[in-house]
Amino acid sequence: MKEAISSSGPSLIVFIMTLGVFGIINTEMGVVGILPLIAETFQVSVPEAGWTVSVFALVVAFSGPVMPLLFSGFNRKVAMLLALGIFVVGNIISMLTTNFTVVLLARAIPAFCHPVYVSMAFTVTAASVNKEEAPKAVAKVFIGVSAGMVLGVPVTSFIASETSFQMAMLFFAGVNALVFLATLFFIPSMPVKERPSYGQQLRVLKKAVIWHSIIAVTFINGAVFGLFSFMSNYLNQITGLHFKMISVALFIYGAANILGNILAGKLLSRDAAKTIKAIPFALGLGYILLFAFGELTGAMMLIVLGLGILAGIAANNNQYMLTNAAPEAPDFANGLFLTSTNLGTAVGTAFCGLFISSMGTRYVVIGTMVFLLAGIAAVFLRGRSSARHHSAEDICSGSLNRMKLKAFAGLKR
User: Fold this and answer.
1) Residues of the domain holding 167
2) What pLDDT digit, counting tens, does each position of 42-56 carry?
C-alpha cells in the first residue's frame, strides 16, 4: 500500500483524509445545534428530534469493530468511496423527505459506514509516512475530527438559522461529495495484499493490553465529553455568561482542540508513554480549577482554552493506545477506538448528568473526575500489561534467534 500512496504524495493523502473525516463527523454531530429546528420541521418534540443524534451514535458504537473487520480485505479506495457515496445519498434523502422516520433511517444507514471510513482514514494516513512520523500524520487527521465535532456544530447552526434545515443537509452532502471526487481522482487504488484472517484480527482481543486500552479510552473520553456536553450549561449557570459569550467560549474550546491535535503529534512522536500518562493528570488539574474558579469570567476563558488543548491531545492519545496495542490489525483496532469513544461519550454524559440532577450544575465536575480517575487507573494497568507483552515478545524472539544460531552452527560443522 505504501508504494501506491507514495505515488500521490503523503501531504495530499493526509489533506483528503482530514477533509473526509471532517465531513463524516460533521454529518454525525452537526445536527446537535439544530435540534429545535428539526423538531419544528418534522412536527416532533425536541427529545424525539434528539434521536437524530442518538441513533447515529448507537449504530457507530455497535458497528465500530464489526464493519472495519468485514471490510479489512477490501481495496481501501473502493471501501472509502462506497462509504462517502452512502453518506452523500443519506444526506440528500434527509434534505428531500418530509417524513421523520425516513430521516432516522437516512442517518442510521450511513452510520454503519462511519467506522469503515474513519478507521481506514487513520490506517491509510499512518501508512503514508515513516513509522516515526505516523503520530504526527494521524494528528493532522484528528484536526478533521475536532473540526467536525466542535466547529461543525456552530457552522451548521448558522447555515440552518439563516436558511433552513434542508440547506444544512445540503452542506453535509456537499462536503462529502467533494471528498468523494477528491478520493476518486487523487487517491490511488489501495488493494490489501496481506490481509490477516478474521480469526487473526479477533485474536488481539486475547491481549490484556487491548482490554486495558479499551477501558482507558472509554473512561477518559467519557470524562472529556461528560463535561463538554454540559459546558454551555455550566458557563451559563455558574459563570453567568450570555449565550453569545458562550458561543465565543465554545469556539475557543474548538480552536484549542485543534491546537491540541497538532501538539499531540509532536508529543507522541517524542515520548508516547509519558504523554499518555501525563495528560489525564493535567486534565484533572483543569477540572479542579474549573470547579474552584467557575464564577470568574476571565479565569474561565483561560481554563476553557487549556481544557480544549488537553482534550485534543487526549483524543490522539486514545487512538494511539489502541492502534499501538494491536499493530497487526490496524483497521480492527481503529474500529475498537471508535466504539470505545462513542460508548464513553454516551455513558459519561449520562453519568455526569446524574450529578447535575441531584446536586446542581457545578457538581458535574465530580462525575467527570470519577470517570477520569478510572481512566488513569486503566492507563497504568495498560502500561504494565504492555511491558509484560513486549517482554514476552523479546524472550520469544531471543529464543528463536538462539535456535537459528544453533542450526547455523550445526550446518557449519
Assistant:
1) 1-195
2) 998 877 887 887 788
